[in-house]
Write a structure and sequence with these properties.
Blueprint lengths: L15 H5 L13 E2 L6 E3 L19 E2 L2 E3 L36 H10 L3 H12 L9 H13 L3 H13 L4 H11 L4 H9 L7 H18 L3 H14 L3 H14 L14 H8 L5 E2 L10 E8 L3 E9 L4 E10 L2 E8 L6 E9 L2 E9 L2
Parallel strand pairs: 1-3, 2-4
Antiparallel strand pairs: 5-6, 6-9, 7-8, 7-10, 10-11
Helix pairs in contact: 2-3, 2-4, 3-4, 3-5, 4-5, 4-6, 5-6, 6-7, 6-8, 7-8, 8-9, 9-10
């Protein structure tokens, strides 16, 4: 309620036995069981509503108003009360920690509707509910970007930090680009560059392009002298020979050469600790993708520290068939690409060798 209280019915003065068992009795069935104002929400999960008519099936909540959601209702009392002293024991179907509820089936549409109504509370509620579900881990990158813009509109910095944490801990590389955008929008350009440099995007031309564009924009704003590093990113973009980018590339010196480091702002969170927690602490190599493959396949590997990496491919007889990479890498997540060239179809093994250990997996080349 706007006055700071929640109405959940009342204790029945005339039903002493019920009161002893710590149950709330709805004295007036015509009064709201739960009520909020326009900017507040009540979300009740795993509720048990005792049938008033003696039936075995509990009724839906009889009466409520405002932004009230009840789901799911239990079909059996999870903790029946026994005895006369008010003590209770759990029944055989007692429940512990419940799994997170599924997001709304049309999350984007509901957020857009809340935005059109200028209901910031509803926006925060819908997105907060979604971020606490397993679906957020595998959500489409475009949806996460939409949610970020919506949270900016709703002025919800705490939930934006939760979205940033999610992006840094997801396995996909697209979300790392969004993570850099999130911190850059708060003018934390050095932190945005730190995220981009912690990962390798060479496994995908689109991802590589996206990371280079961001570096070119963020470097001049990150620190004095950053323009020179931005030029290196621009040079790499030229090599991609994207005609749509060429005109923008030509304007780059005019737009960015005179930028200096912005005023220092204190970040809302300790980004270094979040990034450090998201980065690996040991070596690993994920299965190559695609597998089987016919022309090109990509390898993604993780390093817990700076190391020299040799990634080699062997045929079924144990003979070395290709060297994918033989170079030094920083701590983080990196990618390398193999062009099959003249290699014949068949079973192959790829081996990642560092001073932290050796990992070997198999793959299949099919022409």
């Amino acid at each position: 309620m706007s006055a700071g209280w929640i109405m959940l019915g009342a204790l029945a003065d005339t039903a002493q036995d019920k009161c002893d068992r710590n149950e709330i009795i709805l004295v007036d069935p015509n009064a709201p069981q739960a009520e909020t104002d326009a900017n507040s929400w009540i979300l009740a999960r795993n509720c048990w509503w005792e049938p008033a008519n003696g039936s075995k099936t509990p009724p839906e909540p009889l009466n409520y108003s405002g932004n009230v959601e009840f789901f799911p209702l239990l079909d059996e009392d999870p903790i029946p009360f026994v005895g006369t002293g008010g003590s209770s024991v759990a029944s055989t179907n007692t429940f512990g920690k419940t799994s997170a509820s599924m997001p709304p089936p049309n999350l984007r549409g509901q957020v857009l509707a809340a935005s059109a109504a200028h209901n910031r509370g509803a926006i925060r509620h819908l997105i907060g509910q979604f971020l606490n579900t397993p679906a957020a881990v595998n959500a489409d990158y475009g949806l996460l970007g939409f949610l970020h813009r919506s949270l900016r509109e709703a002025d919800s910095p705490g939930m934006i930090d939760s979205l940033l944490n999610l992006c840094l801990n997801r396995a996909d590389m697209e979300s790392k680009l969004l993570a850099s955008d999130i911190v850059a929008e708060d003018s934390l350009f050095a932190d945005a560059v730190q995220i981009l440099n912690a990962y390798s995007f060479v496994g995908s031309a689109d991802l590589l392009k996206g990371s280079l564009i961001r570096k070119a924009m963020f470097y001049p704003r990150a620190w004095d002298g950053g323009y020179a590093e931005g030029i290196l990113a621009i040079d790499s973009l030229r090599l991609l020979q994207d005609s749509l980018l060429m005109r923008a590339i030509d304007y780059y010196p005019i737009l960015y050469s005179r930028l200096s480091k912005p005023d220092v702002r204190i970040p809302k969170i300790n980004l270094e600790k979040i990034v450090d927690r998201a980065l690996p602490t040991s070596i690993d190599v994920w299965p190559n993708y695609p597998n089987p493959f016919s022309d090109i396949t990509s390898f993604t590997f993780k390093l817990g520290k700076y190391a020299h990496v040799r990634l080699t491919v062997y045929d079924a007889m144990g003979r070395e068939a290709a060297v994918v990479t033989d170079a030094d890498y920083l701590r983080g997540v990196h990618s390398a690409v193999l062009h099959s060239g003249d290699l014949p179809s068949g079973l192959y093994f790829y081996r990642l060798t560092t001073d932290q250990g050796v990992i070997q997996r198999k793959m299949l080349l099919m022409r």
